[in-house]
Write a structure and sequence with these properties.
The chain has a domain at 28-147: Orthogonal Bundle (Arc Repressor Mutant, subunit A), CATH 1.10.10. The protein has 175 residues and is mostly helical. Helix 3 (78-85) crosses helix 4. It is globular, with a radius of gyration of 19 Å. It has a three-stranded antiparallel sheet. The relative contact order is 0.08. It contains six helices and three strands. It has helices spanning 28-51, 61-73, 78-85, 89-101, 123-143, 149-169; strands at residues 76-77, 105-109, 117-121.
Amino acid sequence: MNVTLQEHPDAFAPSAQPLAAKPSQPSAVEVLQTLAITTHLVQRNCDTFLAEQAFPAKISEARLRLLSIVEEAGSIRMSDLASRLHVSPRTITDIVDGLERASLLRRVPDQRDRRVIYLELTEGASVRMAHLYRVQAEHAEELLAYLDTEQRQQLLNLLHLLQRNLLTDGAGSCG
């Protein structure tokens, strides 16, 4: 069952009861639902922020993450990119098509095997990426300003632990 904001406007609102006041241990479902809702809100906030930046194409966190991986690699096969992003190759194709139309990425055939396609940033994208990284870092600082250094480290450690568990054993499914 998919819950939308229109169907349940309070579904994305914080609980009226403070976390410390809850009498019992939170259930696993409650923790995962809160994580999903928070992730959705952060993603929406960041996408809105990035859309307001002067950039030649519609940019989102997903597109910026993809561009960052390509920039770091210098040149990367589409299948390897899909694997690093934990998405299907079809999803990568759709995003790459848009970024290529915006002159931010280019497809480069392998000289030895024409069936293999590599992705590279265009020169224009490389120049603009530095600016996007700066404004993204400033925005992230604003979003997490209320967390002190220890809280940030705790949150990061917990998220890494969850990621490692999901990537290594698959840790069950939610369906």
